[in-house]
Specification:
heterodimer; A: mainly alpha; Rna Polymerase Sigma Factor, Chain: A; Arc Repressor Mutant, subunit A; 0% strand; elongated; B: mainly alpha
């Protein structure tokens, strides 16, 4: 991975000099993680590609500000997160695009009554899609910073330190954000598994 | 599996899909520690849920779209005149012109009020100076020599005046 880091920095050095090939290599390397992160932050796959596109445009335009001492992925996700925040603020000003609009109709889901929880594991208890939907909903309901921290954790090789840099928080605050996010999601899923009820936020 | 290994697996569950061995270890731990079973199940469920979250893929023309946007931005920056033609200029004017005009009016009103206040104050000063200039000359020096006596008379109680009147009579 250290080699990849060096390569990122080396590529960015070339990008600062206007090297388009180097830029394309970086885009190809990171387009998928960025689109994934944005899509999960915004819960909008259609918008995710546009925001990811803007992210890379910003990288190109701001390449002269990149410091080789900083890890490229940290810088990249910082830009992506800022653009997500802008989009979230824009949507919050337009109620019609509210992120809080429910995606599914929970009332249609039958309440689960599990006869013998002790003898079963989650894969047996829940249909996969349903589980994914619940986890997705629990993540969506997290405060933005907790959501970002949790999602960045899923990105390969992004350390707590780097997540802190991206979010602009100290290491201890970052760990606290991640802990609270995990506890919230876990407790909601746990209650759902035990009772079949999906607790509110 | 000890607790340290358990915590490592629990942390990994949030970061990446667990391997079959890790899942088996977790299930085994849950069997041996029934009190923690619900916790383990929840972590496993979340891990699987996270794994299944939608992961959209970039479209095949993603790179070309990025270049188009980069180039469009560069064209606008290199030809400032284009900003107006493209509509950005007029939009800015429409946005800022009313604000600028409102600000200008506010400044004009404030300036006018200040000017009127200052003019009134100057007129008052001029009147005062004029009045002072028209005052008669100072009294005779002989009168000023009796100033202390006159001052003391002013401070004396009324009974003194009565006594003085009686003496004069």
């Amino acid at each position: 991975m250290a080699e990849a880091l060096d390569t990122d920095a080396a590529l960015m050095t070339r990008v600062r000099g206007g090297d388009r090939d180097a830029f394309e290599q970086l885009v190809h390397r990171y387009q998928q993680p960025v689109i994934r992160f944005v899509a999960r932050m915004l819960r909008d796959e259609a918008e995710a590609e546009d925001i990811a596109q803007h992210t890379f445009v910003q990288v190109w335009k701001s390449a002269h500000r990149y410091q080789v001492s900083a890890r490229f992925a940290t810088w990249l996700f910082t830009i992506a997160r800022n653009l997500c925040l802008n989009e979230i603020r824009r949507r919050s000003r337009h109620a019609a695009d509210s992120l809080d609009a429910p995606i599914g109709d929970d009332e249609d889901l039958p309440a689960r009554q599990l006869a013998d929880v002790a003898s079963l594991m989650p894969s047996d208890l829940l249909a996969r899609d349903e589980l994914v939907q619940k986890v997705d909903e629990a993540i969506r309901d997290l405060p933005e910073a907790q959501r970002a921290a949790l999602l960045l954790c899923r990105e390969e090789d992004v350390s707590y330190d780097e997540i802190g840099n991206i979010l602009g928080t100290s290491l201890s605050a970052t760990k606290s954000l991640i802990f609270r996010a995990r506890e919230t999601v876990k407790s909601r899923v746990k209650r759902y598994l035990c009772t079949g009820e999906w607790p509110g936020r | 599996m000890n607790e340290t290994e358990l915590n490592e697996i629990l942390d990994a569950a949030w970061r990446r899909p667990l391997t079959e061995a890790e899942q088996a270890a977790l299930a085994d731990w849950a069997r041996r520690h029934p009190a923690q079973r619900a916790e383990m199940e929840a972590v496993l469920a979340v891990s699987r849920g996270l794994e299944g979250l939608p992961a959209p893929t970039a479209s095949s023309n993603f790179m070309s779209r990025v270049w188009r946007e980069v180039e469009a931005g560069e064209r606008i920056e290199s030809r400032p005149g284009q900003a107006s033609a493209s509509g950005a200029g007029p939009r800015l004017w429409r946005l800022w012109l009313p604000r600028f005009a409102t600000g200008l009016v506010a400044v004009a009103i404030a300036g006018g009020s200040w000017w009127r206040y200052e003019a009134g104050r100057r007129a008052l000063i001029v009147r005062g100076i004029t009045a002072a200039a028209n005052v008669d000359d100072s009294p005779d020096l002989a009168m000023l020599r009796e100033f202390e006596a006159i001052k003391i008379l002013g401070e004396a109680p009324a009974s003194v005046d009565v006594e003085l009147l009686a003496a004069l009579q």
